[in-house]
Specification:
Oligomer: single chain
Shape: globular
Number of domains: 2
Largest sheet: none
Radius of gyration: 23 Å
Order of helices and strands: HHHHHHHHHHHHHHHHHHHH
Number of strands: 0
Number of helices: 20
Length: 544
């Protein structure tokens, strides 16, 4: 296969995952608004408290499995060792069944030691989902290793749709059972209902992936029959077990430290709020709910692109790296980095310029609107840093340097923790200290990971076309969007109409400026969806 075709396939698979990721994030935002109306900001806080603990346990038990499976199996498939690939698949499946069962049981048993008292019920509801998520992760990683992202994408969308529907329905029904009781009891039951939705979503995705695997069992068997690997070259399950531990452990450590920031910051904030400011549990849960359940949820939407590109990049780059094709690795990393920047930079600017109208549409609760929109504006800058650090994390994992992000994350975590504690103790920033610490962590991870990638792949990214010109185009776009929104809102007094018009103008202005600044070559435009149509329009406007 030519490098051009490989690049096209990589972009195509990444695009499929990216579209699915963005759809999932949009669904996630849309259902959070009616859910918040049912469970309130306090319920959001309790849900966030429980899901943060659930996430850390998931990280340790199975969250990194798709990436690790994708990396190991893709290397075997690249060498056409189909029997070894299948043996690895079976061994990893057994691994997650055992680890997932233990993790689920311990979560239920130790829930009261892991979260606030009012969040214990919610975490217990999450416990069975940990077991299901491990099996789902193995199946997704298997198909990603085969460089087909469609199955994963469909399962992700199905998972999020069921999650949204069941979360709202279950929260509503459980809240009805405690109508007339105090607001905290209502918040607890509502948050538990939302946790049920998460479990149903994962179960739905798992059943879909099992169905897809069974559909492909015939193709898998034929491929195994074609494999002529001598029996003495087949890897034993003992060797595979060692390989799983050696590969999965760095992935787990990297991802755990990379994501433990949320849990650590939440714990520090809860301690500061209770011990230094005298907040009660309700006030802590409510304030943290606005931060994590509104501002963070919105800011995470554009990061879905980087996450999708990272998932598509790991099997692609690890296969090329295993065959010592360094130039192909560099090409894919440069393409992915440029793509992330071209999306994340305008996304950050747009979230900053239109923070209040966006928050008002998605979370219209008046009592927390100002706080949520101000937090979103502050967090917007982290979109670029998290996008890049997520991608470079995947690059380092793909080339067998998974221990490097672990070190980088640990150093970044230390610095951001010092900054957070200092801000909480010596300033009156309150919950805004969390946002600032979040930015510092993502910035440091971005810098450290970029330096590591540059060192190991001996590559450079185009500064002007990848960083400077997109930033200039995004700044002009942000000013135009803010101006259009303000003007139309003054005329119509309609937030949604004004916001839609502002976003449409922003997209057109940014796209036009990308062509004016010649950030894309004609060859690059041909590789994006509807690229030939863009080329024809650009040629008529004499922009290329």
């Amino acid at each position: 296969m030519s490098s051009r075709k490989q690049k096209d396939n990589f972009l195509k698979q990444a695009g499929i995952l990216a579209i699915a990721g963005i759809i999932c994030r949009i669904i996630g935002i849309l259902y959070r608004s009616p859910l918040t109306s049912i469970i309130g900001d306090e319920g959001n806080g309790l849900y966030s408290d429980a899901i943060n603990a659930y996430t850390i346990i998931l990280l340790i038990s199975s969250y990194s499995i798709p990436s690790a499976v994708s990396k190991i199996i893709s290397q075997k498939l690249k060498l056409k060792e189909y029997q070894n690939a299948q043996r690895i698949f079976r061994a990893v499946l057994l691994y997650v069944i055992i680890i997932g069962a233990l993790a689920s049981g311990l979560t239920c048993f130790l829930a009261k030691y892991l979260v606030l008292e009012n969040s214990v019920l919610v975490l217990k509801v999450f416990a069975p989902t940990i077991f299901l998520s491990g099996i789902l992760g193995v199946l997704r990683g298997y198909f990603q290793a085969n460089k087909t992202m469609l199955q994963t994408s469909i399962s992700q969308i199905a998972e999020q749709i069921l999650n949204a529907v069941v979360s709202i329905l279950a929260a509503y029904l459980l809240v009805q059972t405690v109508t007339g009781k105090d607001s905290t009891t209502i918040a607890i039951y509502g948050a538990a209902g939302s946790a049920i939705g998460t479990g149903v979503g994962v179960l739905t995705a798992l059943l879909f992936m099992i169905f897809v695997y069974l559909l492909n069992i015939g193709v898998i068997k034929k491929r195994l029959q074609r494999d002529k690997t001598p029996s003495n070259q087949l890897e034993s399950y003992g060797d595979i077990s060692k390989m799983i531990v050696l590969v999965v452990t760095p992935f787990i450590l990297s991802t755990a430290i990379y994501n433990v920031t949320t849990i650590l910051n939440q714990s520090i904030y809860k301690f500061a709020a209770a011990s230094w400011w005298g907040y009660d549990q309700k006030a802590i849960a409510t304030t943290f709910g606005v931060y994590s359940g509104k501002a963070v949820v919105i800011s995470n939407v554009p990061i879905a692109l980087a996450t999708s590109l990272a998932a598509a990049l790991i099997p692609s780059i690890s296969g090329a790296y295993a065959q010592d094709k360094l130039q192909e690795c560099r090409m894919k990393v440069q393409t992915a980095t440029k793509t992330v920047l071209l999306i994340s930079i305008p996304s950050a600017v747009g979230l900053f310029a239109l923070a209040e109208p966006i928050t008002k549409v998605l979370f219209p609760q008046v009592e927390s609107l100002e706080l949520a929109s101000n937090l979103l504006a502050v967090l917007s800058i982290s979109v670029v840093f998290f996008g890049l650090s997520t991608l470079t994390n995947a690059v380092l994992q793909g080339i067998g340097k998974a221990s490097r992000p672990v070190t980088n994350a640990a150093v970044a975590l230390l610095f951001q923790t010092i900054i957070l504690v200092t801000l909480l103790y010596y300033t009156d920033l309150g919950v805004f200290a969390l946002a600032i610490a979040n930015i510092m962590y993502s910035l440091l991870m971005c810098i450290f990971n970029q330096a590591s990638v540059k060192r190991f792949l001996q590559m450079k990214q185009q500064i002007i076309k990848s960083y400077l010109l997109p930033s200039l185009a995004a700044a002009i776009m942000g000013a135009a969007a803010y101006g259009v929104y303000t003007g139309i809102y003054l005329l119509t007094d309609r937030n949604l109409i004004s916001l839609i018009c502002a976003i449409l103008i922003a997209v057109l202005v940014y796209g036009f400026l990308l062509l004016v600044f010649k950030i894309f070559t004609k060859e690059e435009l041909q590789q994006i969806p509807k690229g030939n149509t863009v080329i024809k329009i650009a040629e008529k406007m004499h922009l290329i």
